[in-house]
Design brief:
Layout: E1 4-8, H1 17-30, E2 35-43, H2 45-56, E3 64-68, E4 76-83, H3 84-93, H4 98-113, H5 121-138
Parallel strand pairs: 1-2, 2-4
Antiparallel strand pairs: 3-4
Amino acid sequence: MGKKLNLTGNESEIVSSEAVISVMSSVLDGEEKDYTSVSVLLVSDDEIKEVNKKYLGHDYVTDVVTFPFHEDSEPIEGEIYISLQTTERNSKTYKNSHSSEIFRVVIHGILHLAGYEDSTSESREEMKKKEDFYLDLLEDSLITKPL
């Protein structure tokens, strides 16, 4: 079975599609996870709120929602929804570039697919360290610094 990494919703080319695919591949490789299909869907606040409410029962906007389609075993298969409006607001709040914030939530979503959780303060801290690790690792090959 072939491997597929996909990005949709990037018509305005807010971020390099090749860079997003590279980030996805690097994190999956770094976590030593096999995969069949992982898609990142860049959506609006309205769209992510609808997905969040319909499938998770959460009636609010968020930056990222991840849906694993695989069981606990590999290979990984899933979808990662990312709100472009929320990531843009977060980039201003955290004083980094919009592309860097998108890369961070792509990494966050991949880590969820790889089995990481963020339901406790300890697990959130572990995920944040992993996100920072991969952002630092990929920094030389990605344009993530604010101008």
